[in-house]
Amino acid sequence: MIHKWSWWRRCFGNPNYLKENGGADADLVFLPGDLVSHGLCLKAGEYNPEKYKKLEQTIAKVTDLMNEHFGDKLFVPSMGNNDPKYHYQPAAMPDEPEQYAFVFNEWFIRLGRNKSVFNLE
Fold it and tell me: DSSP class of residue 71?
């Protein structure tokens, strides 16, 4: 069974919502982007390490919540326009190692069964 993880914000208020509505039987969870709220990612050229740290903490918290409730699932995550360091911008060359390493760790090492399924031991 495949279940689209839509309306994920509803699950933060009631983490059992998805489980109670068929998610417990899911084999695969699509985790669409925009995990981070508007205004938390940086504007182009903005320098604010504290704000960027909160963005990373938010993505890590989503990973934690998904693992807490659906840690036995395979996830297909995607990045939305609010999830990168800069709003609507892919990582610039100087930011690539830091940003992509963080996202890779969250989504392919820590999230659900992804590490074992993708043979990342």
Answer: T
Tokens 């709003």 sit on residue:
87
Write phi, then psi, for 49 (nearest 5 degrees).
Answer: -60, -35
Q: What is the pLDDT of residues 46-76, one digit of tens each?
A: 999 999 999 999 999 999 988 988 899 999 9
State which H helix or E strand residue 73 sits in: none
CB 111 within 8 A of CB 63: yes
| DSSP run (H or E) holding 68 | helix 49-70
The string of pLDDT tens digits covering residues 29-38 is 888 888 888 8
pTM of the model: 0.82
Say how many residues make up the chain. 121
Work out how many domains the chain is built from and give that number.
Answer: 1
* Cα 33 from Cα 75, distance rounded (Å): 12
